[in-house]
Design brief:
There is one protein chain. It is built from 57 helices and no strands. By secondary structure, it is mainly alpha-helical. It is extended and about 135 Å long. The termini are far apart.
Length: about 1000
């Protein structure tokens, strides 16, 4: 055998053994390492056979309970059967734990009084198997869950005292859960305290048992306490518990409280969010809904479709722009939007007059190809509620284009809307195609005839109804009666009324309609005669009747307020309460009346009536307009504070009144807030609303903002002359006559029809600065445009000459007006008197006064103010007091706050501080408000006279600082000029009164955030 072959024979087995040895060494090392690192596992491996043998031995030696009990439990038999099966073997064998629960439950149901004794005896009989903490916890848990707290306590006592079983964590938790189920928070606290004293702490299961118990009893605060404890130790609060808490919180009216406390502790499950939002929808709580919405958006929590539904309906009811945002979000997320939801939202948009969102919903329905008569009906309702009857009627053509057919109800509504907006042709067309003409449809046709003033057509429709088979009731006859009254045909109205009496068709509405006719004609005797006839025929006048009579008394240029107030007293004596219409009628009649006493009397009646101004649009508008006209700023401020808290969804007309009121208060910020609210709700401002907003901005010195708004309006509507004249007035007030002239030239080049209002505004802009050459140019242009100057034009021209100092030419204008019979009121006389006062032309002033006396020109508050200034400067203070007393009485007006201020300044000009202070007190006691100018003038007089402490008192009184925060006596938005405050503080410092008076005053003013100039 060769050497090479020998090597190969011995080498192969050697190499195999070498490789095997490496693997064996690796296994040995791995085993040693495992044994070193996990010795317990190695022990378990060797001990396991022995343990297994032991458990097998125990299995053979442990007693087996009667199989009948298991069969009864598994079969779900009644408690009596379970208890009978248990009693067969309970003495011989220990009951297994899984069977012990139904046995305890059976004992609890059938033998509650013997439960403790029987369970304890059974455990004692088989103590080696049953006397354990685990068995005790199982038994206690069954009793605790049933709410049998007395038995639970007895059983716990027996376990501890008779069997020596000490409480463990599961036992404590069962007890705590039982007490929570019973609603005993005090016991829960005591057992928890005992648990913690034993250095044990609730597990997640223990917290859950406690929370379930408190939830069962609706104990919101205790549940929240457990939530906080659970999160503090790092456990997760079960979502079901959060949902249940929200449910019981909503039931208890504490949804806001639950949300506020839980939001920082736990995420809200979708079901919990749904509970809260549905509760918000039920109670109309839009604020809480908005907070929930914000939290959901911020944390990206999921929401159920019901939550979207509740949120959208709440936002739609409130006219909130969030409705649109949420609706778009639903579309982006693919949330199903049903037609029913859209119809429901449209119904709520009608109540809130939320046009923009309603049209967005309609466009969405159109975009997905939906053509539903229900959607059209809901949108039609939105337009009708917003007073946009024309748009409601326009939907009819769209309905037909979509191949839909209105039902009889929709036909009736369309006929009514057509009558409201005067679309007679559409009314006739609808009456021809409607499947059935019901009495309401005929009445809509009659109303359409009334809109056209066609009494004959109204009677023809009535005769057509009488010739049909339908029953014609009083409502149809009243409708025709109203047409006669509206057309002023009282002869036919009276004849129809007599026919209705004969046929027994007359009712209270008929008499009130006739009353309206007599009232429209101003026929007081006819009204009184009809009152007597009503009473004779057994109809007692109601609120409508009295309101008609009151309206007759105050309508026209010479309102009879005595007769009106006598009617109000008669109304109240009859037990009929004044209503919104009563107050509105009185307020409207007072807008152009200068008698402040009548205004105060009407406002007092409003207060006595208890009516909520912000509950009715007509009442709100009339009160605001009257208060704005008469300077009742405190009342306006009160109303504007109440308005955001009301449920009113104002129309465009009401927004106009609100804008005027805010402008009068010098609150441009509130004007813009109202403007934005109107735009968000989709209400298109009309010419009147634009005019009110422009006027508010101009009155607040925001001329540039007004110019921008006017430019913006051109894309929406054609600006009218009133809007342009308002901007021109702004230029005049800000001494920018060149811009006023430029705008006038632009208007003429654009072909706008000029009128006297525009010319007077441009003339005034130049007259204020004495630019009479431009005034002459404007007067010539008026002639070219065919416009005749009126009284205001001549008065404004006279003012220009006065401003320039050329009083003789101003008098020439007056003489020209007198020759033409145009100088019948005090406007031009006031203008020249003011010029005489400025330039100290006392001789000419006396001549003008003689003219006024000779021509019986009625004086006004403005006249009084000018004369008080004049006599103050002429050092004729007694004459000023005399005319202040006699002129208002002679000409039937009450001296206003400005007149009081003029008299006060006259006193100060003459160095009579005491008399000035008495005038100021009279002003405050008269019910009028002293403005910043009055306070400033009096404070300046006090400083000049050395009465520094009194000046400080006046500042504190003005801002309500004398006895802590109080009611500010200054009108809203007004302040004392900072210069007056600075001068006072300097004077106090010079006299050494800074620490005693000056510094405390300054600190109070700073705390009240009063502007104090450089001192701040």
């Amino acid at each position: 055998m060769s050497e090479s072959s020998q090597f190969s024979l011995t080498g192969v087995p050697y190499e195999d053994i070498a490789q095997l040895w490496v693997e064996v060494c690796f296994l040995i090392c791995f085993g040693l390492g495992f044994a070193f690192l996990r010795p317990s596992s190695v022990f378990d491996i060797f001990a396991k056979p022995k343990a297994k043998r032991k458990s097998l031995e125990e299995l053979h030696t442990s007693p087996i309970f009667n199989v009948r009990l298991r069969r009864a439990v598994d079969a779900g038999e009644q408690s009596a059967a379970i208890l009978a099966a248990w009693e067969v073997g309970c003495k011989s064998f220990p009951t297994p734990i899984d069977l012990l629960k139904p046995v305890v439950q059976a004992l609890l149901e059938l033998q509650p009084k013997a439960l403790v004794q029987r369970i304890v005896e059974h455990m004692q009989q088989h103590s080696s198997h049953l006397v354990t903490a685990r068995v005790a916890a199982v038994c206690l848990d069954v009793v605790a869950r049933a709410g049998s707290i007395g038995l639970m306590e007895d059983l716990d006592h027996a376990f501890r005292c008779d069997l020596g079983i000490q409480r463990t964590l599961p036992t404590y938790e069962v007890l705590i859960g039982g007490y929570a189920t019973a609603g005993n928070a005090q016991k829960v606290h005591l057992i928890t305290k005992e648990l913690n004293a034993a250095h044990l702490y609730l597990s997640a299961r223990g917290f859950s048992l406690t929370i379930k118990g408190f939830l069962k009893n609706g104990m919101v605060d205790q549940v929240m306490k457990q939530f906080r404890g659970m999160t503090r130790v790092g456990f997760t609060v079960p979502p079901f518990a959060v949902t249940q808490l929200c449910r019981i919180g909503c039931d208890a009216g504490r949804a806001a409280d639950v949300f506020a406390q839980s939001i920082g502790l736990v995420p809200l499950p979708p079901e919990a969010i749904l509970h809260i939002l549905e509760d918000c929808a039920r109670r109309g709580d839009a604020d809480l809904a908005r907070k929930v919405d914000d939290a959901v958006q911020e944390r990206q929590w999921p929401m159920l479709i019901g939550s979207y539904d509740a949120l959208l309906k709440l936002y739609a009811c409130g006219g909130n722009q969030r409705a649109s945002t949420l609706f778009q979000q639903m579309q982006a997320r693919g949330v199903r939007i049903s037609e029913g939801l859209c119809v429901g939202l449209l119904a709520r948009c009608a109540d809130s007059k939320y046009l923009r969102f309603a049209e967005e919903i309609y466009k969405f329905e159109r975009s997905r190809g939906s053509k539903s008569i229900v959607v059209y009906s809901a949108l039609m309702k939105v337009y009708a509620y917003s007073g946009m009857y024309d748009k409601a009627c326009d939907l009819y053509d769209r309905i037909l284009e979509d191949g839909l057919e209105p039902d009889s109800i929709m036909y009736g509504c369309l006929m009514k809307f057509a009558a409201e907006c005067g679309r007679t042709e559409l009314s006739q067309r609808l009456s021809e195609v409607a499947p059935v003409l019901e009495i309401q449809n005929y009445m809509s046709l009659i109303k359409a005839a009334g809109r056209d003033g066609d009494v004959d057509r109204a009677f023809a429709i009535l005769r057509r109804m009488e010739g049909s088979s339908m029953h014609v009731d009083s409502a149809a006859y009243n409708c025709v009666l109203d047409v006669c009254v509206s057309a002023g045909d009282m002869t036919r109205a009276r004849r129809l009324g007599e026919d209705m009496v004969q046929s027994g068709k007359i009712d209270m509405i008929s008499y009130n309609t006739l009353l309206k006719g007599y009232c429209n004609a101003g026929d007081i005797s006819g009204v009184k005669a009809l009152f007597a006839e009503m009473t004779k025929n057994g109809f007692q006048p109601n609120d409508v009747s009295y309101n008609c009579l009151i309206n007759t008394c105050v309508m026209g240029h010479s309102p009879n307020f005595k007769e009106a107030w006598d009617t109000v007293e008669m109304m109240e004596r009859s037990g009929i309460a004044v209503d919104n219409y009563t107050i509105s009628i009185l307020m409207k009649s007072l807008k152009n009346v200068r008698n402040h006493r009548e205004v105060a009397r009407a406002l007092n009646l409003l207060d006595r009536s208890g009516l909520k101004v912000c509950a009715d649009e007509i009442l709100l508008r009339s009160v605001l307009e009257t208060c704005t006209r008469h300077g009742e700023f405190a009342r306006i401020e009160q109303i504007l504070q109440e308005f955001p808290l009301s449920d009113m969804r104002p129309s465009a007309h009401t927004y106009g009144a609100l804008l005027k009121a805010c402008g009068a208060l010098k609150r441009a910020d509130k004007c813009w807030a109202l403007w934005q609210d109107m735009q968000q709700r989709g209400i298109e401002p009309n010419e009147i609303v634009y005019g009110c907003m422009l006027d508010a901005l101009v009155c607040n010195g925001a001329v540039e903002e007004a110019v921008t708004l006017l430019a913006d309006s051109k894309g929406r509507l054609a600006p009218n002359p009133i809007m342009y004249s308002t901007i021109i007035k702004g230029f005049a007030a800000s001494n920018q006559p060149h811009r006023a002239m430029a705008l006038w030239r632009e208007m003429r080049s654009d072909g706008m029809q000029m009128n006297i209002v525009i010319y007077n505004a441009v003339i005034d802009a130049h007259a204020r600065v004495g630019a009479m050459d431009e005034v002459s140019e404007l007067v010539e242009a008026m002639s070219v445009d065919g416009i005749v100057p009126d009284t205001i034009s001549h008065s404004t021209i006279a003012k220009g000459y006065c401003m320039k100092g050329d009083l003789d030419k101003a008098v020439d204008v007056l003489r020209n007006m007198q020759r033409r019979g145009m100088a019948k009121d005090s406007i031009v006389y006031n203008t020249i008197l003011d010029g005489c006062t400025r330039h100290r032309r006392w001789d000419l002033a006396d001549t003008i006064l003689e003219d006024m006396e000779r021509l019986a020109v009625p004086a006004s508050n403005f006249t009084l103010g000018i004369l008080l200034k004049m006599y103050g400067r002429r050092r004729e203070l007694d004459k000023a007091f005399d005319i202040f007393k006699t002129m208002p009485r002679r000409f039937g007006f009450s001296a206003n706050a400005q007149a009081h201020t003029c008299l006060l300044c006259a006193c100060l000009t003459n160095g009579c501080l005491d008399r000035a202070l008495r005038v100021f007190e009279d002003l405050l006691h008269s019910g009028l408000s002293a403005d910043g100018k009055a306070y400033g003038a009096l404070i300046g007089g006090c400083i000049r006279s050395g009465a520094l402490e009194r000046a400080a008192e006046l500042i504190e009184e003005a801002y309500g600082l004398r006895t802590g925060p109080g009611r500010c006596k200054l009108p809203p938005g007004q302040h004392i000029m900072p210069d007056h405050i600075e001068r006072l503080l300097q004077a106090l410092a010079q006299r050494g009164l800074s620490e005693e008076v000056g510094i405390p005053l300054l600190m109070k003013l700073r705390a009240a955030q009063v502007p104090v100039g450089r001192c701040s």
